[in-house]
Amino acid sequence: MSKPFMHFNNLTMSFTTRKETVTAVCDFDLKVDKGQVVSLVGASGCGKTTVLNAAAGFLLPTTGEVLLEGEKITAIEPRCGMVFQSYALFPWLTVKDNVAFGLKMKGLSRKQRHLEAQKYIELVGLKAFANAYPSELSGGMCQRVAICRALANKTDVLLCDEPFAALDAMTRQVMQQELLSIVQKSQQTVLFITHSIDEALIISDTIVVMSARPGRVKTMIDVKLPRPRDVNVQLTKDYIDLKKSIWDMVEEEVRSSLKLTKRAGMGQD
């Protein structure tokens, strides 16, 4: 069998505070194929963001490993681009310069990086706003710039930490479709964190339900719903049945997480 494109191989992540050692993720094992869109869902505090930070190389495993194309990630990984919940754009730079910033750090000339940035700006439908500043854009447009910046760096993996959580419901739905369109054109592999089961069902090839802390893979669901997926698919019986099944699993873990939090609180002075 061929090696998976990305492999979280029994990943364990622990953190020591002044009072205790907390294990955020334990024996997390997940294989991701190239070009696959995988969403992580689960209770707050189950380690979803920790998993993404390990993939980016921002945090190193306590035990286990993260492999990309068979190579262990041991430092900040340039093949992985991160899109955060906040836009993290430089307010003093134009859209074009924000997108080109990573290319500037790589040493490309101004002409080269602007030509490259322009391709991705057009890809996300922001050609008319290339010289605008973030303060002149809507929230959805800012998030498209953030995604565009990650794509311009030609990363193999797009790591998305609830990138649409701060958007209104209508803009969020449009951005989900935008992301799928961009990924289809760029052939990106995507790891996507969300607390919305609907969002996970719309965008994902596979949904990973994580257990309450310490986070493990509780189950994996291959989403067989036909593409393209829009609001109409949410009215079908297959969609409703799948959503209920996932919610039942997530709810169980949320209740477990609340019990753990309550116990911890009762143990404090």
Protein described:
α5 links the parallel β7 (157-161) and β8 (189-193). This protein has 269 residues and is α/β, with parallel strands linked by helices. The longest helix has 30 residues, at 237-266. It contains 7 helices and 10 strands. The strands form 2 sheets. A 6-stranded mixed beta sheet has the order 6-7-8-3-9-10, sandwiched between helices. It has one domain: P-loop containing nucleotide triphosphate hydrolases (Rossmann fold), CATH 3.40.50. The chain is 38% helix and 23% strand. The chain has helices at 48-56, 95-105, 110-123, 139-152, 169-186, 197-203, 237-266; strands spanning 6-16, 21-32, 37-41, 63-68, 71-72, 80-83, 157-161, 189-193, 206-210, 217-222.
Helical content stands at 25-40%
Order the strands across the largest sheet as they lie in space: 6-7-8-3-9-10
Structural class: alpha/beta
Number of strands: 10
- Count of folded domains: 1
Strand content is 15-25%
How many helices does DSSP assign?
7
Q: Give the name of the CATH architecture.
A: 3-Layer(aba) Sandwich
- Kindly state the mean pLDDT as a whole number? 88
CATH C-level label: Alpha Beta
Extract low-pLDDT stretches.
none
Question: Superfamily at the CATH H level?
Answer: P-loop containing nucleotide triphosphate hydrolases
**Which H/E pattern describes the elements?**
EEEHEEEHHHEHEHEEH
Enter the CATH topology name.
Answer: Rossmann fold
Rg? 19 Å
Oligomer: single chain
Give the biggest sheet: 6 strands, mixed
Give the termini distance in whole angstroms: 54 Å
Protein name: ABC transporter ATP-binding protein
GO molecular function: ATP binding; ATP hydrolysis activity
InterPro entries: AAA+_ATPase, ABC_transporter-like_ATP-bd, ABC_transporter-like_CS, ABC_transporter_ATP-bind, P-loop_NTPase
Keywords: ATP-binding, Nucleotide-binding, Transport
